[in-house]
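Exercise 4. Each item below gives a protein and its sequence. For each, produce the structure-token representation.

Item: TetR family transcriptional regulator (Streptomyces buecherae).
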Amino acid sequence: MTKERADAARNREKVLAAAAELFAAKDPRTVTMEDIARAAGVGRGTLYRRYPDVASIATALLDEHEKALQHELLQGPPPLGPGAPPRERLAAFYAAMVELLDRHVHLALGAETGARRYATGAYGFWRAHVMALLRAAGVADADALAETLLAPLAPDVFAYQRERGVTPARLTAALAELARVLDR
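Answer:
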């Protein structure tokens, strides 16, 4: 792996900081590459050299938060980490995802709306995790059920529920009820 040049690192940090502010200030689905380049004080060529589109910038910003959650799922204490029954782990996963979305839905909306959601590495990880829990619970067709159980965590669904006044606590409780699907 090549070491990043100092000027490239500075530009990357400026781009990410500017994009984070823009995503937080307005609907992230309306942020353009031109907006980000202007706010960061870099040329569009500099921006496009590293990031092909707005979603890739949002993904870069969201990545560290998702990786921390992935680490907890793999190595953290139960019930989020290994060692708890599948239903408890699914409920804990839902709670952790609600917390992540509550803090970073603006980034998730920029990175994972529509079909882009299914193309991210994080979604693949979440899907594999849910499928493993379903299989551990003895669900015959984990593949068919995984997306159904992940659907409530779509950033646009989460944002819509929050706009309607559904609190994170209510959403977490409702998803814990959904996790009872594994209590068969």
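Check: The domain at 1-52 is CATH 1.10.10.60 (Arc Repressor Mutant, subunit A).
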